[in-house]
Design brief:
globular; 5-stranded antiparallel beta sheet; mainly beta
């Protein structure tokens, strides 16, 4: 059995199985991603320049730790439910039809579901080699490896 995704030309996004591993973060951050479900869509089409995920956040869940990328641009589009965009500049409520974008090296950001219902959005990001992410509220640095996995260290460089 191959780990390569089955490629297709069209599908129903909600029918795509969620990722089996809910987060790549090491503990103690991994458990903070409880309530987040990602369905990787771009891989199913063989996309290599950018990724697309259909992501659902349960009430109280967050999209990621507050972060910013050095080379990756990101874009989110809210499909259903209510979310709060939290940045290092403040907070903005998001409803279906709202979108937000984050240029490389820009503001730190993440989404939080503070409502009592699930919220679903599309997240799109490029796959620039050499990317890294910083986390202003946490002792964490992530560096994208050539095999597209993330290596995590403390801010002082000590590995997790």
């Amino acid at each position: 059995m191959s780990d390569e995704p089955v490629r297709t030309n069209a599908l129903r996004a909600a029918d795509v199985p969620p990722r089996t591993k809910p987060s790549n973060y090491p503990e103690p951050f991994f458990s903070r991603m409880a309530g987040r479900t990602k369905r990787p869509l771009g891989d199913l089409f063989g996309l290599s320049n950018f990724g697309v995920n259909l992501t659902t956040l349960a009430p109280g869940a967050m999209s990621a730790l507050l972060h910013r990328h050095t080379t990756q641009d990101e874009f989110v589009y809210v499909l259903d439910g209510e979310l709060v965009l939290v940045t290092d500049e403040g907070e903005t409520p998001l409803k279906p039809g709202d979108c937000a974008g984050f240029a490389k090296g820009g503001i730190a950001h993440h989404l939080v579901n503070r409502s009592g219902e699930p919220a679903t959005y599309l997240e799109i990001g490029d796959r620039s080699p050499g990317d890294s992410a910083s986390y202003p509220q946490d002792d964490l640095v992530a560096v994208l490896q050539p095999d597209r996995t993330w290596a995590f260290t403390h801010k002082d460089g000590k590995p997790y």
